[in-house]
Structures are given as structure tokens and as C-alpha cells.
Specification:
The chain is mainly beta and 69 residues long. It has one helix and five strands; from the N terminus they run ββββαβ.
């Protein structure tokens, strides 16, 4: 089962620190995500969890960002 990380949660993947941020009110949240590369999402969902509200248990859209950015 793929997790739902809480908004504000900080986590580490391969030595890089990330934070889950609320995307409420952001028109194009994917554009602000650290895992977007052009039009492609490269998020390792098994490690970071889902971002899309329809797949999250809290029904919230989130964006993953690098800590300290």
C-alpha cells in the first residue's frame, strides 16, 4: 500500500530532504513539484507517497519540495 504523507511532513530519500506542502489554491501544482521534469512526473511514489488528492486518504492535493527551498 502506498502511503499518504502528512502535509508538513519531512522525509529523506537517497540522502535528500523533502517536505510535503499543501497545494490548495495552486492552479498547476505539478509545475511546483520537485519531481516534475517537463511534462513527466518522476516521483518515486513507493517512497514519497501520492500527491494527487484523489489517491490520498486525506483528499488533499500536495506538492513535494526540497527542504530549504
Amino acid at each position: 500500500m502506498i502511503r499518504t504523507r502528512k502535509i508538513g511532513e519531512r522525509f529523506d530519500v537517497c540522502g535528500i530532504d523533502y517536505i510535503v506542502t499543501d497545494a490548495t489554491g495552486i492552479e498547476h501544482p505539478c509545475r511546483e513539484c520537485v519531481f516534475i521534469d517537463g511534462d513527466d512526473c518522476n516521483a518515486p511514489f513507493e517512497e514519497v507517497g501520492f500527491c494527487y488528492k484523489g489517491m490520498r486518504t486525506d483528499d488533499k492535493q500536495v506538492v513535494f519540495k526540497r527542504e530549504n527551498e
